[in-house]
Structures are given as structure tokens and as C-alpha cells.
């Protein structure tokens, strides 16, 4: 049946019939007719499209949707247009405007929910294969006794061959999942065949085979069957896995048989699997990709078996006696380890790109290095550390000669070689810290037995520094060498000194000199790392102060150096943030130095007084935010630390609060930009006054509140004088409330008939009169409120003695007056409303 395409997208057959897109008799891809009576999984002979795939069903549904849309388009296109009454029917003109292609909306795929369509047969076939294997095992266990030799042979061979053949046939027809399930059943039956044959005495005689022999036989059978199935139908994945798995099982079982030579077998198996993987990779076929990855995994497993077995042999030899390098290389275990290192180069046979080359060579070099240092592991920690340093240094030398693009090849073995030495170095540093922090009464160090030779610490740090210089770019080597590597080596030397029985001052001097020199070198630089260098030097000086803690006089040295570094950073720093950093460092350092000097002078409880004075002087000289904040924190810490040292702690607290408040007030007066600090200073002075009054046993509230209230009122009056428009509620109200309310509460607690009540009433009267005279709301409200409340309190005793009829009468009178007044106002309002209503 011939077809031709129309411009509108609708195709009409030559005999007048309408063309249908969803036609099960033609291929949806090439539109060629399909033979009748074929299976649903048939492939098109023209374009080789798999018609049994779930995607083909989705395409057919989409074509049915297209047919529906085309039918609607035909109905719209062929329907006669309505003609108005009295108008002539329009004559179609095809030349005027060609018909436009119909716009078909895109088909929206329905959202996928539940289990995927392709997953259902996989699940069902997997369960079916499992059921078949279980049924086969039960059948053989039950029927093995009454079946003869011939029957057994026929059943086993028939079942195995039938499932294997059926798998190949249905795979050719395109049912991949079904084929994989059947081939799994056939391979499982093959294993049962081998086990049944061994049990019947067909293999191994009457005594049968041992476990290793039976495993070897099963592995070889799986490998042979899997290989045969791959040759017959290479698109099956299970036979590829079975072939490699069978060889792997045979490799594991072979050394336990009479063959022996487990290391040789593992090495040959590793090489064989690697060769197989390389060959499959070079074949570049997607059908055998499963075999490729299976062989690669098997090669890794056999390599691990080879390496672990060789290491176990080396450990066993070391337990029998000392293992030398010569004995290692002449023993089979040493040769096996060397072979394992060389086998890491096997992936290069499949692919030789730069990344894989570096990975393989790096792994081989690291493994060979580990094998070379094995004899040293049982010679003591010092020998282990020395071997680590030597190996790291040799690989570092190789890294110097290596091209930059392949620097990782020697760098990784060098870093791995230095790991044992670095662990020993960390242990030595811990012992050095413990020794420096726990000196004897004579200020001498008594370190215990070190975990390794102390000189090893310097050697390891130097080796690590050399490796770092090789790794960093050439432009950074000078900076890293001067700022990182060299100071680290010198610090390791000082730590080594702490592992010797020396005086404490030697370690303190070494640390202080190194830290001060490092910080001074940072102060003369202008780059971004200068500030970090200064901070590192200051941190090391702070650590030196902790080390020198057992001796008060000895702490003067690091504290003086730290103060000098902080002052130099504040005054001479060349980087933008140096001023802020110096301002944060100087007050704590200066406070510590002054504190120690006061301790040496025997000030005891007054030790913080000179500290506060010095800090205040520095803050007055440099009014910077960072320095002032650090000064406040350091002053608070010094005061809190000095109070417990005094004999009278309450008096000491009042003294330090007074001194702090006075210094803060002076600072606010000297610098106009710090005027708001006067509030802080005043609060400190008030707290000092309250502490002192409490210490003297004063319980009346006026000594605590009146000074502060008078000060607040004075500040408010000053504000009103400068700004007449200011509100008295914000300027005078806090001071007036503080002056009157505590006294009123005291009157309420002790009784209304007292001198305090009289004076409070007189003050309230003055506030009312003065507020009314000056038209100030705050004095008027406070005086009226406090005075009225005081009057009611004094009236309370007489109110309790008044007869009840008097109270009732007064209440009635008040209510009558209020009601009359209310009614009068309502009448006046109504009269006014009538008057307004009469207006024109």
C-alpha cells in the first residue's frame, strides 16, 4: 500500500483510507511491514529495533495519542463553516495562503509511580530461579536413594543442559532477564552435579575428596561452564561472573591441596587475572564488560591474598629470630612482597595514560619502600624512626630530580615513609612538655625514659621540612623555608633540650629567644603573613610564660619580651591591622608584667593597684577601641584576682571598685569622644559606696540612694539648662524616683509616724510646689504620687477607727454628686443639640 505525505501532516492512502500511526502490523521506527505470527520480542529485520522492549509499548501508546489528535484535526478541518443569512458563501483560495502545519502539543509523560515495569520480570525471575534451585536440592536429597546410577546421570545432565540451553535460546530471542535467571539455575545445578558426583564416589573414589579438593573441583567446573556459555552467547553476564568466580575459588583451594606453594599460586593468579582484564579492556567490547570488572576485582583480591600471606610469613620469621635485610630478600616471603609491588604495575598493560601511570608507579614505589624497611621494625623505636627518616630523605631527593608534573610519584612514598617518624616525634614532644611543666623544687628538669632517641625529633622535623620545600612552588620556597621550616627545626631543638636533665631557665631562654626573634622578623615585613608570624611568636611567648610559671622571677623574661613585642606591634607595625592586634596584645602582657613585679615587691592584696594605674595610663595615651577593650578586660581580671589575696575582702572589693570607677571617669573627662564612659565609672563608684556601706552595717536606704539620686538630678538640671526644650520625664524623673521611692518603701515597712515620714512629706510638698511653679511635670508627678500615698498611709489608722455609717454616708454622697453632675451634663448636651438643629 503506497503512502505519500501531505503538507498538513495528515497522510491519506491511495485507496482513500485514512492512515493510522499506531499500527501493530508495521515497525514504529522504520514503518516497514512486520511478518505475521512472530513473538512479541521480535526484532525488526530492517532497523533491528527490539519490539518486545517496554519502550516499544510506550511508543505505541504515544502513537495512539497522535491518532486521536489527528482525528480531532480532521473533524475541525472538514466541518463546513456557518454562513450568515444573506451573505454569499466564500470561495476557498488555496493560492492566497498555504495551509499551516498543525501545532500538536507535546505529549506529557505520565509520572512514574510504584515499581518500574522492567523491574517486575527481574524480581519474578529471580524468585523463580531461587525456587528452582531449592526444588532441585530437595529433589536430589529425596530421590537420590531410589534413583539408579543411570537415572541420576540422566536427571542431572538433563536438567543442567536443559536450563543452560534454554537460557541461550531465550537470550537470542531478546529476553535478557529470563536468560540470566535460567543460566543462574543451570550453574547452580552444575554445582549440585559436582557435589552429587563426589558423594556418589564418581570423583575421588570411595573415600571422596577433602574440602580443598572439592572446592577446587567446583571452581574448575564453574570456570569451564561459564567460559563455554560465554563462547556460545557472550551477552550473558552471569556466565562471565561464574567463570571468573570459579577461577578465584580454584586459586584459593589449590594451595591447600598437594600442590602447595600458596605464594606462587597467588602471584600467578594475580598476574593471570590482571592479564585477562587487560585483554578484555583491549577488546573494547561492551558485551564482556562484566567479565572485565570481575577479572579486575579478582586481581585485587588475589593481590591482597598474596600480600597478606607474605606479611604473615615475614612476621612468623621475625618471631623465630631477628630478620635481616639479606634474609628478607632471600626468603620466599620477601620475594613475594617484591612481586606484589611489581604486580601493581600490571594495569599499565591495559592502558598507559599519565594519570594511571602515576598511580601505579606511586603505589608500587610505596609498597617497595614498606618492604625494604620491614627488617627494621623489630629493632627498636629509634631504628624505626631512623629508617623512616632515611627513606623519606631518599624519596625527597628523588622528588628534587623528578619533573614537576610527576612530583606525586616520589612525594607520596616520601610522606608515607615519614609517618612512623612523625608519630615518634609527636610522642617525644609530649614527653618534652611534661618534663618542662613538672620541674623539681630546684627548678631542674627530670625527664623520664624517652620513647626514642631525642635527636630523632630534630631529624624528623628537618625531613618533613625538606619535603615541604620540594612540594611547594618555587616562588614560595624561600618564604616557607624561613618562616616555617627553619623555625620548626629550631623549636624541635629546644624541645630536645627539654628531654635532657637541664635547668628550667635554659628551656625558657631558648623558647623566649626563638619566639622573640620570630616575632621581630614578622614586624619588619609588610606582606600578609607578617601579622600571622607576629601572632605565632606572641603565642609561643605566652606558652613560655606557662613553662616558666614555677618561678616568679623567671616569668619576668617572657613577659617582658611579650610586652615589648606587643608595644612594637602597636607602634611600629607595618601592616594595616597591626595597630589593632598590638592594642589587643599590650594590655594583657603589661598587666601580667606589672602583676609579677607587684608579687616580687610583696604587695599581696594591693597587687592590682599598680596594674590598674599602668593600664589606665596606657589607655589615656592611646585611646583606641581595641586597646581600651583589652584594658578593661585585663583590669577586671587583675581586680578579681587581687581581692581574694587581701585580708579584708569586702574592703578590697570597695577599694578596687572605687579605683576602677575613678579611672574610668578620668578617661571619659580627658577624651571628649569617651564621655559616655562616665556612666560606667559612676556606676562603679556607686557600687563601691554600697559595698562600703554594707560593710559598715548601714541599713537605711538613703545613704545608698541619695548620692546617686542627687548626681542624676544634677545631670538632669545641667541638661535642662543646655536644652530648655528637653522633657523633665527623661532628665529629672530617674533621679527623683530614686530619691523618694526607696524612702517611701521604708516608711511603708516601719510605720508612718517617724522623722523619715515627715521629711519625705516635706520633700514631696516642695516637689509639688516647685513643679507647679516651674511647670515641670516630673517633680509634680513624683511629689503628688509620693505625698498622696504617704497621706493615705497616715490616714489608715484613723480610717479603721471611723464608724461604718460615716463611710457609707460619704460613699453615698460621692455617688449622688457624681450622678447629678453626669445627668446635668447630659441635659446640657441635648439642649445644645436642639439649638444647633434650629440654626439655618
Task: Write a brief structural summary.
This protein is mainly alpha-helical and 840 residues long. It has helices spanning 54-78, 119-143, 149-172, 176-199, 211-232, 238-253, 262-283, 289-320, 325-330, 332-343, 354-372, 381-401, 408-437, 455-471, 477-498, 504-523, 529-547, 556-572, 578-601, 608-621, 625-642, 649-670, 677-696, 702-722, 728-731, 733-750, 755-774, 777-801, 804-838.
Protein described:
The protein has 840 residues and is an all-alpha fold. Helices cover 71% and strands 0% of the residues. It has helices at residues 54-78, 119-143, 149-172, 176-199, 211-232, 238-253, 262-283, 289-320, 325-330, 332-343, 354-372, 381-401, 408-437, 455-471, 477-498, 504-523, 529-547, 556-572, 578-601, 608-621, 625-642, 649-670, 677-696, 702-722, 728-731, 733-750, 755-774, 777-801, 804-838. Helix 16 (504-523) packs antiparallel against helix 17 and helix 22 packs antiparallel against helix 23. 32% of the residues are buried. Residues 1-16 and 83-122 have low confidence and may be disordered.
How many helical stretches?
A: 29
Strand count, sense and barrel status of the largest sheet are:
none
Mean pLDDT figure? 78
| Total strand segments | 0
Overall geometry: flat
Specify Rg, calculated over alpha carbons: 50 Å
**Cα-to-Cα separation, first versus last residue:** 103 Å
Amino acid at each position: 500500500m503506497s503512502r505519500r505525505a501531505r503538507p498538513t501532516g495528515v497522510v491519506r492512502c491511495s485507496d482513500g483510507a485514512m492512515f493510522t500511526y499506531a499500527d501493530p502490523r508495521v515497525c514504529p521506527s522504520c514503518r516497514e511491514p512486520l511478518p505475521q505470527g512472530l513473538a512479541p520480542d521480535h526484532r525488526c529485520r530492517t532497523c533491528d529495533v527490539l519490539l518486545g522492549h517496554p519502550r516499544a509499548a510506550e511508543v505505541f501508546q504515544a502513537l495512539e495519542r497522535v491518532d486521536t489528535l489527528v482525528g480531532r484535526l480532521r473533524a475541525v478541518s472538514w466541518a463546513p463553516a456557518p454562513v450568515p443569512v444573506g451573505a454569499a458563501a466564500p470561495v476557498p483560495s488555496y493560492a492566497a495562503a498555504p495551509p499551516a502545519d498543525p501545532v500538536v502539543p507535546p505529549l506529557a509523560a505520565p509520572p512514574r509511580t510504584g515499581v518500574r515495569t522492567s523491574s517486575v520480570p527481574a524480581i519474578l525471575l529471580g524468585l523463580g530461579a531461587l525456587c528452582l534451585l531449592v526444588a532441585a536440592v530437595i529433589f536430589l536429597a529425596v530421590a537420590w536413594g531410589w534413583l539408579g546410577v543411570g537415572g541420576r546421570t540422566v536427571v542431572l545432565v538433563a536438567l543442567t543442559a536443559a536450563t543452560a540451553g534454554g537460557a541461550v535460546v531465550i537470550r537470542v530471542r531478546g529476553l535478557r532477564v529470563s536468560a540470566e535467571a535460567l543460566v543462574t539455575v543451570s550453574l547452580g545445578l552444575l554445582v549440585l552435579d559436582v557435589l552429587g558426583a563426589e558423594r556418589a564416589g564418581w570423583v575421588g573414589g570411595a573415600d571422596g575428596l577433602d574440602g580443598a579438593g572439592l572446592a577446587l573441583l567446583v571452581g574448575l567446573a564453574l570456570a569451564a561452564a561459564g567460559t563455554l556459555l560465554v563462547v556460545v552467547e557472550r551477552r550473558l553476564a552471569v556466565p562471565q561472573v561464574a567463570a571468573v568466580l570459579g577461577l578465584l575459588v580454584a586459586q584459593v583451594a589449590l594451595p591447600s591441596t598437594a600442590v602447595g606453594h600458596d605464594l606462587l599460586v597467588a602471584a600467578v593468579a594475580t598476574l593471570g587475572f590482571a592479564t585477562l582484564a587487560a585483554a578484555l579492556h583491549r577488546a573494547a567490547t561492551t558485551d564482556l564488560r562484566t567479565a572485565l570488572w570481575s577479572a579486575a576485582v579478582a586481581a585485587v583480591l588475589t593481590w591482597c591474598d598474596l600480600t597478606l600471606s607474605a606479611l604473615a610469613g615475614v612476621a612468623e620469621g621475625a618471631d623465630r629470630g631477628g630478620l635481616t635485610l639479606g634474609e628478607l630478600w632471600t626468603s620466599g616471603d620477601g620475594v613475594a612482597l617484591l612481586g606484589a609491588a611489581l604486580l601493581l604495575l600490571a594495569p599499565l598493560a591495559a592502558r598507559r595514560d599519565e594519570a594511571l601511570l602515576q598511580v601505579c608507579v606511586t603505589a608500587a614505589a610505596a609498597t617497595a619502600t614498606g618492604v625494604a624497611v620491614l627488617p627494621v621494625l623489630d629493632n627498636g623505636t629509634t631504628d624505626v624512626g631512623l629508617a623512616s627518616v632515611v627513606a623519606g630523605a631518599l624519596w625527597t631527593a628523588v622528588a628534587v630530580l623528578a619533573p614537576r608534573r610527576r612530583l606525586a610519584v616520589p612525594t607520596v612514598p616520601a610522606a608515607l615513609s615519614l609517618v612512623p617518624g612523625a608519630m615518634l616525634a609527636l610522642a617525644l614532644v609530649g614527653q618534652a612538655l611534661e618534663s618542662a611543666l613538672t620541674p623539681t623544687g630546684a627548678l631542674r628538669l627530670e625527664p623520664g625514659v624517652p620513647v626514642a632517641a631525642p635527636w630523632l625529633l630534630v631529624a624528623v622535623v628537618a625531613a618533613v621540612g625538606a619535603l615541604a620545600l620540594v612540594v611547594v612552588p618555587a616562588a614560595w620556597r624561600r618564604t616557607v623555608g624561613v618562616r616555617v621550616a627553619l623555625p620548626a627545626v629550631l623549636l624541635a631543638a629546644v624541645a630536645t633540650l627539654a628531654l635532657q636533665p637541664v635547668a628550667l631557665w635554659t628551656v625558657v631562654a631558648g623558647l623566649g629567644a626563638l619566639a622573640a626573634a620570630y616575632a621581630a622578623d614578622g614586624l619588619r615585613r609588610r606582606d600578609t603573613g607578617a601579622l600571622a608570624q607576629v601572632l605565632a611568636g606572641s603565642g609561643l611567648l605566652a606558652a613560655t610564660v606557662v613553662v616558666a610559671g614555677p618561678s616568679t622571677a623567671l616569668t619576668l623574661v617572657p613577659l617582658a619580651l611579650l610586652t615589648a613585642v606587643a608595644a612594637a606591634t602597636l607602634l611600629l607595625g607595618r601592616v594595616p591591622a597591626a595597630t589593632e592586634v598590638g592594642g589587643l596584645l599590650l594590655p594583657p602582657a603589661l598587666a601580667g608584667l606589672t602583676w609579677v613585679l607587684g608579687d616580687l615587691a610583696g604587695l599581696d592584696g594591693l597587687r592590682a593597684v599598680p596594674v590598674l594605674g599602668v593600664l589606665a595610663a596606657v589607655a589615656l595615651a592611646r585611646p583606641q577601641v581595641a586597646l581600651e577593650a583589652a584594658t578593661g578586660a585585663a583590669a577586671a581580671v587583675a581586680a578579681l584576682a587581687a581581692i581574694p589575696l587581701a585580708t579584708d575582702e569586702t574592703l578590697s572589693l570597695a577599694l578596687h571598685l572605687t579605683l576602677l570607677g575613678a579611672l574610668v571617669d578620668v578617661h571619659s573627662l580627658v577624651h571628649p569622644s569617651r564621655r559616655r564612659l562616665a556612666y560606667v565609672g559612676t556606676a562603679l563608684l556607686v557600687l563601691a559606696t554600697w559595698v562600703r556601706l554594707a560593710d559598715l552595717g548601714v541599713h537605711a536606704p538613703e545613704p545608698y540612694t541619695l548620692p546617686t539620686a542627687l548626681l542624676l538630678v544634677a545631670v538632669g538640671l545641667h541638661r535642662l539648662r543646655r536644652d530648655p526644650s528637653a522633657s523633665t520625664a527623661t532628665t529629672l524623673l530617674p533621679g527623683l524616683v530614686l530619691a523618694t521611692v526607696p524612702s517611701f518603701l521604708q516608711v511603708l515597712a516601719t510605720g508612718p509616724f517617724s522623722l523619715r515620714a515627715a521629711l519625705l512629706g516635706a520633700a514631696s510638698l516642695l516637689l509639688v510646689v516647685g513643679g507647679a511653679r516651674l511647670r515641670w511635670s516630673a517633680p509634680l508627678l513624683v511629689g503628688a504620687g509620693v505625698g498622696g500615698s504617704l497621706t493615705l498611709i497616715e490616714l489608715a489608722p484613723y480610717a479603721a477607727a471611723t464608724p461604718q455609717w460615716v463611710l457609707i454616708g460619704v460613699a453615698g454622697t460621692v455617688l449622688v454628686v457624681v450622678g447629678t453632675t453626669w445627668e446635668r451634663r447630659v441635659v446640657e448636651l441635648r439642649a445644645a443639640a436642639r439649638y444647633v438643629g434650629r440654626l439655618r
